[in-house]
Design goal:
It comes from Stigmatella ashevillensis. By secondary structure, this protein is an alpha+beta fold. The chain is built from 11 helices and 14 strands. The chain has helices spanning 56-66, 125-133, 151-162, 169-175, 185-202, 224-237, 254-271, 273-276, 288-302, 313-320, 351-371, and strands at 2-15, 18-26, 34-35, 40-41, 47-48, 77-81, 86-89, 99-109, 119-123, 140-147, 212-213, 222-223, 333-337, 340-343. Helix 5 (185-202) packs across helix 6.
């Protein structure tokens, strides 16, 4: 048996087919019909949810403020409701054509599991947790909500609301492949790299499967930002650039890009097998400097004459073999020439060190490319 919570509300027609609902409600009641959809991956590696974990220290600070005399929270909580929530317009018209007054009707069900509640938090998770835990009787809050059964639309709004706030960038990057929203330019540019990184991390046959550290894969040892940078460089002026296709979904031939990345990194694993299974602290191969520099090698190989656009793993292995004697991923010292020597673990993930290592590793392929001109 379910009850209903009926709240006076405004319905705002913001754009074609898009409606917002503005209302006030006791913050203590929100937990009865609202859940936090925390980001996670299912058994099939599909991404669901879109929230970050609770920030306990931040919640404690808000709670202390709420328990002080006369607290004020002027910012609206943003919620997404599914279609079980409905709006009943009041009789009569308002003076504004895009606003209607009425009642928002929210179903309430006792002992309902969190995933089955009709409301989801888009923005305000930490505030709601603080209100929930605070030793106060009641705290009315302002809420802005929209109604949709499309989780992708909920995710899009979460990205847009939080992209300008101090939110973990890795969480946003992991959410990007699953949204079709019109995104700000910096986020739009990272959508394709994020999709390719997702495939590298989730495809079972990928040489980097499960090894990239993300919000849903915190045990990975390779920094997601290093992989994104490697992919972005190649999309800008490397081998992946040749597969950009404006007429296709995602603006690219994603399958061919995935083949190139899979074949190259599988070859890296074979050629440098002793350094491959080690964490970045014990091997500079999968350290940020190694990942980005080897990405430049992948692009340099593509410029050598008679190298196909999508080399096989075996072809990449053949091209990488000469680097075995030149590299010192796990011990010894790098000899960069002109008196420049570095102990193996003194290479850092800095622009200067990445440029130094990239030039050193790419030199053999640049010479081959110049001879073929």
């Amino acid at each position: 048996m379910s009850d209903e919570l009926r709240l006076p509300a405004l319905e705002v027609h913001q754009s074609k087919g898009r409606k917002l609902y503005s209302f006030a409600v006791d913050g203590k009641l929100l937990q009865d019909f609202v859940t936090v959809s925390r980001v996670r991956r299912g058994d099939g590696n599909e991404l669901s949810g879109y929230q970050r974990p609770e920030a306990l220290a931040h919640i404690q600070e808000i709670r202390a403020y709420l328990e002080a005399p006369s607290p004020l929270i002027p910012n609206s909580i943003i919620l997404a409701f599914d279609s079980r929530v409905r709006f009943e317009p009041a009789k009569g018209k308002t003076s504004l054509p895009y606003v209607r007054t009425g009642t928002l009707v929210i179903p309430l069900e006792k002992n309902i599991a969190d995933p089955d509640k009709p409301g989801f938090v888009v923005d305000g998770q930490q505030r709601l947790a603080a209100i929930r835990d605070a030793n106060i009787h009641r705290l009315p809050v302002c809420v802005t909500a929209f109604i949709t059964n499309d989780v992708r639309q909920q995710t899009e709004q979460f990205i847009l609301v939080n992209s300008t706030k101090p939110l973990p960038k890795g969480l946003i990057y992991e959410l990007l492949p699953g949204t079709d929203a019109h995104l700000p330019s910096p986020l739009h540019r990272r959508k394709l790299p994020a999709l390719l990184m997702e495939r590298l991390n989730l495809d079972e046959d990928s040489p980097l499967s499960g090894r990239i550290r993300t919000t849903t894969n915190p045990t990975g040892t390779i920094k997601d930002n290093s992989v994104l940078k490697m992919i972005e460089n190649s999309l800008s002026d490397g081998v992946l650039f040749h597969f950009l296709r404006p007429e296709r979904a995602h603006g690219a031939d994603v399958a061919s890009m995935g083949e190139v990345l899979h074949h190259f990194w599988a070859a890296v694993a074979r050629v440098f097998h002793a350094a491959w299974g080690l964490p970045p602290k014990k091997s500079r191969l999968l350290h940020g400097a190694g990942i980005i520099s080897l990405g430049h090698v992948m692009d340099a190989i593509s410029r050598v004459r008679n190298v196909p656009l999508i080399p096989t793993e075996a072809q990449y292995v053949e091209k990488l073999m000469p680097l075995q004697e030149l590299t010192h991923w796990t011990g010894g010292s790098w000899n960069f020439g002109n008196g420049e020597r570095r102990k193996w673990n003194n290479l850092q993930n800095t622009p200067g060190d990445i440029e130094l290592l990239s030039k050193y590793l790419c030199t053999p392929y640049q010479k081959q490319a110049s001879r073929s001109l």
